[in-house]
Amino acid sequence: MTVEFPALALILAFPALGVLFNLFLGPRYGRRSVNLVGPGVMFAAFAVAAWSFLELISMAPGSALAVTLWRWIAAGNFHADIGLKLDALSALMVMVVTGVGALIHLYSVGYMEHDEDIARYFTYLNLFAFSMLVLVLADNLLLMFVGWEGVGLCSYLLIGFWYTDRQFAYNGRKAFVVNRVGDAGFMLGIFTIVAALAHEGVWTLEFSQLQMHAQLISPVMATAACLLLLVGATGKSAQIPLYVWLPDAMVGPTPVSALIHAATMVTAGVYMIARLHFLYQLAPVAMEVVAAVGAVTALYAAAIAIVQPDIKRVLAYSTISQLGYMFLGVGVGAFGAGIFHLMTHAFFKGLLFLCSGAVIHALAGEQDMNKMGALRKKLPITFATMLTATFAITAVPGFSGYFSKDLILESTFTSGHAWLWLLGVIAAGFTAFYMFRLIFMTFYGNSRVEADKLPHLHESPPVMTIALIILAVLAALGGWIGLPQGFLWGDAIGRFLAPVVGEFVPAFHASAAMLSMAATGAGALGFALAWLCYIRAPELAGWIAAHARASYQLLLHKFYVDELYNLLVTRPLFFVSTTVLGRAVDTFAIDGMVNGAGLAVESTGRLARRVESGNVQHYALLYLLGALGIAAYYLYRVLA
Amino acid sequence: MISLNYMMLLSGALFSIGVAGVLLRRNVLVMFMSIELMLNAVNLAFVSLGNRLGTMDAQVIVFFVMTVAAAEAAVGLAIIISIFRNRESVNVDDFTLLKW
Fold it and tell me: Which of A15, A429, A442, B3 qualifies as a cystine partner to A129, CB 3.0-4.6 A?
């Protein structure tokens, strides 16, 4: 049952108003008004979202709120509307985007207090929130694509926010270009769906219509469409092979890393696959690919994270790894579990980034963990909240990540993907190692902070810590809405999402407790190793790095994938651009034609201008010859 | 009664002399007089044809031509005097500044 609910438009209207205000009036009215409006519109949007959410859960399961604003495109049989729809899946996403988004906007007020360009910052951030909400509220694939492109644009703008640094600007471009590759796949996927359905006489991209008519699509076309859409998802959600932009995206302001490159935008790929679950279920091959990409990415990125010295890079690879888990979840058919992990990840990864931001803020921009240490006493709130988030991400029983990650791993095993499950468990061990390594290097041990930074080492202002504390509560307790079936209220979120994304049907039954113990055991092992290497025997880490030099270098240089892409893609592309297209086509052919035309006119003129002798008798003679010519012509006409 | 042919031949001869004068003579004043000659050759053709056809139109046009010729003579001579004051020459070969 779908109910008309015009207030949904307000969820979009508030951030849009924020954009307009910050863009046009922000620079004039100054920091105070921008600080008020930027986060203010997000809290307003959150209030409307919460109202809509309460409205939705008071209705029968499987209901939706919807509003169609206007007809957007009408071309022959095809049409697309600006239509918004809030069902269980998008409601959850909207709550995360507006809720976590509002907190991070608030945190930004403190984090960006020393930055002059605050109005531009909040313009971008509000524009991002607007685009993301378009993405999740869209009721058709085309409008979703608009949001999809919008968040990519904002990501680019915010990575290069401090554009005076050439490297930062370059990283922004890299993110944009890599995303563009994914977006090309996404568009081709949309075209494939339109073509496949139009063949059967159905012209639509609306999700409910697609679901109704999905059976008309042949398995081959469905597989092609799903794989193409997966390319888009790997670009936006930073999965192998298009993940390379995300670690470099960390040069943006840290709240941006938290909001865009951890909590919301990068999960768009998972959301899209869950949204189109009916299509993916028609293409088992594509599902297998999704699961395999997810599991391999989860392990691969976690392995890189264990040696990175930069605190934000560790978290960036951690994000890629966690997104891998989500892909694994949706890939094995446990769409609800994937979305559940998406939600808990938004809490704890958003929090981890904000905490790392608080550390960086306190150390005046220092990001190298080799120059941190012993910050536990100086930054007590940051330490406590970051430890909570670390417990959540390493799946300590009782914390949010435990429930969601276990659900994914359990679904993977019981759907018959034992190998992928094993990859996931190993990745869980790696996760515990790199996260506790981060905690130990940052907050424990001896202080390695540079002397000139010690005096102004301070805890963050309340406007920042309040966001940390709220998120810490969510990161600790957020998982309790998805308990295993049979405990207390059971799998509430699974039941909530089931009408939209379907139930997960295990291929066989296995003991959930045993599976959970395996994953938790791997985590405990990772923790123990981290404790051994960084607390018990701090020299051990260096000793291992020196004795396993090859593997250490391989991990430190991220498996040399950037170099490989440079060699295989970027350099040939530059060669073709500069030498073939630049020199041969542009300079020789096109410039030749343009300059040749000019040269021809010029040389003709050089000859013809000799006629202008300045002597009036020459002109008179030519005039006479002309007159005689005309007279001769008419005489000839008359006589002949 | 003089035959029309003679009159047209005379007119053509006068016109040709005028053209030759404009094209070949270097003295601006002589060129100027040659133009007058061409105009009057045309006038002669007009009146003789008008007489033959028995119409007044040709004579009206001749009056117009004479008016224009008078105005042209006034302006043209003024220009020639002005040029002479500047260049101390009435030779057209000296007046070729306006060129490439």
Answer: A15
